[in-house]
Amino acid sequence: MPQQFELRKEIELKATPEQVWDAIATGPGVDAWFMGRNEIEAGEGGAVRLSLAGHTSQSTVTAWEPGRRLAHSNSPGPDGSFLAFEYLIEARGGGSTVMRLVQSGVLGGDNWETEYEAMKEGWDMYLHSLGQYLTHFPGRSAQVVSVIKPQAPERDQAWDQVKTRLGLTGTVSEGDPVRLALTEPTGVVRGSRLIRGRRISLRGAGAPAPATGGTMTATMDAPGRVFDITGAGLIKGISTSLPAERVTGSGLVEGVVDYAGFPTFLGVRTDQGLFRFIHSGADRGNVMILGHHIFDDVNVEQTQYSWQSWLDRTLVTPEDA
């Protein structure tokens, strides 16, 4: 049964009203702290588009008062469900600004309570990210990298695996150091690996024993992902020369935890950007999402590939073992 709702959030930001306006009322500004890729057409009646995971949602600007107020809403669905957003900006002394968010509308379906709680929890993280952007990367454009892992392990197991790869142990707190190698190091491949769900032997050309012989330079990925090898060798008994690896280098990422919102969110800030790790929970399908905002000049396609590979290697279910 459709359910009306309203939630309110407030945050004080170390930025001017003009900086806050640019961060909430322009596509590049929203890309720097919110999910997906965003487009905003200036002025009342303009379109607001959010693209994420191959889907684009659209709403219409209903209020446009630069430096003071922005509102937009989408059209009601067949069941009457819709979402409306209002941002109110107020200058404070010392160059700071208070921003108030009101999200309201109608949620459809039987799981509206789950969706409401997810939005309420999600806004805490995204508004924190807005503050981090305005404090550490003000005015800079972000390259958006969004990666999704459906059918991920359940929360406890998934977070244990992610924290291990990030070099985190025990209870995670803001300020904890993070260090990870984004790409698998190149080197010796021995024994067997899972490729597209099947365990096969890897060996160098002419090697007599698949479990011990031969070497190849390789970048390993999880089942169903790309497996790239440089060199010649035997795969399933066929001698072949395979293409060069697609991702080179260790892709070292170093930073600190800036948001510890377990069991749903983990935020990491580096000198290059804001890195967000999100687990949906069992009620929403055990999906792991990475939503990163990188303020360096990077190749988005290659970076997306690297993070998808990292996520697929990191999250392992019993079926993958």
Structural features, described:
The protein is an alpha+beta fold and 321 residues long. The protein folds into 3 domains: 139 residues, START domain (Alpha-D-Glucose-1,6-Bisphosphate, Chain A, domain 4, 2-Layer Sandwich), CATH 3.30.530.20; 110 residues, Alpha-D-Glucose-1,6-Bisphosphate, Chain A, domain 4, CATH 3.30.530; 51 residues, no CATH class. Helices cover 21% and strands 40% of the residues. Strands 1-7-6-5-4-3-2 form a 7-stranded antiparallel β-sheet. A hairpin with a 2-residue loop joins strand 3 and strand 4. The longest helix has 25 residues. The chain is globular. The protein starts with a strand and ends in a 7-residue tail after the last helix.
Write a brief caption for the model:
This protein is α+β, with helices and mostly antiparallel strands. It is built from 5 helices and 18 strands.
What is the C-alpha radius of gyration, as a whole number of Å?
23 Å
The CATH class of the largest domain, by name, is: Alpha Beta
Overall number of strands:
18
The CATH architecture of the largest domain is: 2-Layer Sandwich
Q: Considering the protein shown, what is the CATH homologous superfamily of the largest domain? A: START domain
Secondary structure topology:
Layout: E1 3-13, H1 17-25, H2 27-31, E2 37-40, E3 47-52, E4 55-65, E5 69-73, E6 82-91, E7 97-107, H3 112-136, E8 143-149, H4 155-166, E9 177-181, E10 192-195, E11 198-204, E12 217-219, E13 228-235, E14 238-242, E15 252-261, E16 265-270, E17 273-279, E18 288-294, H5 300-314
Antiparallel strand pairs: 1-7, 2-3, 3-4, 4-5, 5-6, 6-7, 8-18, 9-15, 10-11, 11-13, 12-13, 13-14, 15-16, 16-17, 17-18
